[in-house]
Task: structure prediction
Amino acid sequence: MKGFVPTPDNVVDLMVGKLFAERPASASARVLDPGCGNGEFIAGVLRICAARRWPIPIIVGVELDPARATTARKRFRAVEQVTIRNIDFLQPSRERFDFIIGNPPYVSILELSAEERLTYRSTYRTATGRFDLYVLFFEQALRLLAHEGRIVFITPEKFLYVETAKSLRELLRAVHVDELHFANESTFEGRVAYPLISTIERTTNKDRTRIIARDGRVSTSAIHVSSTWLPIIEGFVGDTATVTLADIAVRVSCGVATGADAVFVMPTNEIPSELLKFAHPTLSGRQISPARTLDQQSSLLAPYDGTGALLAEPNLGALGQFLREPSRLERLQARSCVTHKPWYAFHDNLPLPDIRRPKLLCKDITASPFFVIDRDGTIVPRQSVYYIVPLNPNDLEPLADYLNSPIVATWLRAHCQRAAGGFLRLQSHVLKRIPLPASFAPVSGFNENIELELRPA
Result:
């Protein structure tokens, strides 16, 4: 089954304890395990009932995969209170359950068929953007949850802050998020998912959420917004500034994706003389050092003119001959972008008039964000780099100082997505929202074209 990841017994027992923390199981209670797999959570419920001498509740396990459903049926065939159904949990249902517990499948929209995407988008409010299946499981569980009922799910933490999960956060505002427990990164061996155990209650009598951080710290927060929850959870108080990075920048963007760096990027000292007029200094994220240095030893061969317009194929000259070499041509034609672009175009457009200006550069994934100045404005950053072109070139130095300050580091840690190993994943929509001191406010009537000049290739 797509997205199936077994849950370790110690995590199962922790979650079952949360499920019945304030309301012990009773014989009439109805418990649901959606996507039950081999029945790990059902076994956990039976363990706690035996240990605490509770009656066994009515337990329903739902599993789409026939083989796993059969395994679960055999495992619990001696327990009459347990029923395993080989059906799709996301199909419409009018049932109600007092307790819902599980580890929903993590399945990106990219792994779903076109028919599945269409069906889910027409059925689920949360099926927006590049949604993941576990988000739909949340919505369906909320539909099936009885009054005063409780859900305990373990999922990736991303739904707390990604834009595609905004609809889910809106749904959760109508109930009570009782607890958010950030589980250890190594919870699922061999997988880095940044797991989060969420405890949800269908009640409006409470307004504080208990937060258990990965380092064990415990706090409470009042979660009351549909936008990213991460700053609130992190205890960040800010975003009151009237000036943001987007207000004072010509562009805040990810670097260029060619779709074939192995073809378009070469060591600068190896570029044939006939290709030099197509070459632009370039670098990737790994070539930006925390010491604020740029390891600039490569160049990008760009089939674009100085305005960023794609050259006509007859005008490629020596670059066209270079790119038509059989192994290079095969690599270029294998890219997805050639379905709607010429075979030699980059995956992304190349806004050279904006890129080739003095700017700030930063890695897209980093343990501690830092910003480095490209004073000459000659570098064309690639997709693992973000670049910030200030409206006023005089802002370059003070802006670099401010963005490298502890204030901004704290803000970014509270707002950025997490990547593997505790690293932060920077994104343009987050960078644009960085609050700035009022001194950076654009001067009325300032014309950035007076002071900015496009550097020659």
Remarks:
- The CA atoms of residues 61 and 84 lie 5 Å apart.
- Confidence is low (pLDDT under 50) at residues 445-457.
- The chain is about 25% helix and 20% strand.
